[in-house]
Amino acid sequence: MQFRNVANLVAVAVVATGLCTPANAGPEDDTLRIAMAEEILNLDYNYTTKREYIILAQLTDAKLFEFDPETQDIKPSVASEFEWVDETTLDVILRDDVKFHDGSRLKAEDVAYTYNWLRSPESEANATGVVERWLEKAEVVAPNRVRFHMTAVYPLVLRDMASRVMLRKAGTYGEDGQIDRDAMSSALVATGPYRVVSFEPGTELVLERFEDYFGEKPAIENVTVRNIPDIGTQQAELMSGGIDWMFKVPEDVATAADAIPSIDFLSGADLRIGFLVLDAGGWSDAEGPMTKVQVRQAVNHALNTEEIAKFLMGESSQAIHTACHPAQFGCDQSVTKYDYDPQRAKELLAEAGYPEGFPLDLWAYRDKAVAEAVASDLTAVGIDVNLRYVKLESLNQARAAREIPAYFGTWGSGGTADTAAIAQIHFGDSDRNLSGDDQLSELVLAAEQTADPDERKAFYSQALGVIADEAYWAPLVTYTANYLVAADLEFPLSPDGLPRLQNARWK
């Protein structure tokens, strides 16, 4: 395995700034300036994915319920309470003081509209998958009450309401047959703690505190989000006072930057995990190597996950052997574990009929150092890896077209400490599920349809056991949340690893 040393980026940034002190510190104009490497192109989280968009949605949007990151309890937000009418009918009672950013008051009709729109096939929204598996329809039964009719018993409905669906005004996405899925992509009208002032896609987003926000108002008045692709440029901006916050910082870069008085290095746990998804179902090639269990087991044995965690991910990272985060409910750690054993990997490849290895297109879209380390480990046992490092959109398109034999992916579970948050989308009815195992999908579905915690654990144990025995995945590591922030910024870390910038304040 080969590792990249990127600490020299700090030296470059130091030279670029001359170790200058912040000239435009955020407290002076009460503006928190943050940097993101990924382009921000769409402000409507109902139609996006990725961690960057989750962070922004925390600033601009509100949901019916919220997770408490300390306890993982689900708490009211736009909803004030809920009542079960029967086991498949849920009434949600709304607060009466929630306003949209245009000053209009949120009504029950808006909530019902949002959920029904996302449930409809014509919405084509990223959030659709969260509601379509349980929602039949939402209806207004009183000025402040929405009734959700469910297709089946589904104990995780409040979790879904707390994790994904952002509320929109009735008619937002078009009326009278005219559909506009991009209606909120740039001119977002939402109900969260900050409102959009201006947005230049791929360049800059400017937010200001929404004074009519129904919840606890943020301490900082303004937030500016800048797209800065290069990490060295981000560091230079941080030291010169151009920004106050950056994330996804490599461990060695963050440690080196921490020596600079004007910068603090913050690090904590993250529910995100990394893994390889292997085309066991033969979607990309019905007779391909990944259809053979010995090959998939060989891939698992070939990967030095302990070193990847130690040298590339940071001190809070750990190697994993399950298709979930060890901290998640139901993530059984007793399943089959494939120790790092390159010789055994070579033996399994020979048993499968590939003593000289085989060519493999390995797709990846993020964390290039990790992808390169994985490719190096696989090459060492004889697999001729062609690393196809692409944009996420390209990977998504290729996966939907069933053209990918293996890819390096990650999943943060939306900060939800429950195996359900990763199992359903990766082993249910989704193009992410490359196992081709219908019985596995049934186990995952069964776990979602019981309210008994012990039964849920049993289903997940069985499902995770199948995934491990059949080596449908090659689990890699847990992630570490690394941040560099201005020394005068107080930025509390959440145990689920999700940055909540609305909780930041000046020291």
UniProtKB/TrEMBL annotation:
Residues 74-423 form the Solute-binding protein family domain. It is found in: Periplasm. The keyword Amino-acid biosynthesis does not apply. InterPro entries: Peptide/Ni-bd (IPR030678), SBP_5 (IPR039424), SBP_5_CS (IPR023765), SBP_5_dom (IPR000914). Residues 1-25 form the signal peptide. Coiled coil: none annotated. GO terms for molecular function: peptide transmembrane transporter activity. One of its GO terms (biological process) is peptide transport. Keywords: Signal, Transport. Pfam families: SBP_bac_5. PANTHER family: OLIGOPEPTIDE-BINDING PROTEIN APPA (PTHR30290:SF9), PERIPLASMIC BINDING COMPONENT OF ABC TRANSPORTER (PTHR30290). Belongs to the bacterial solute-binding protein 5 family. This is ABC transporter substrate-binding protein. It comes from Algicella marina.
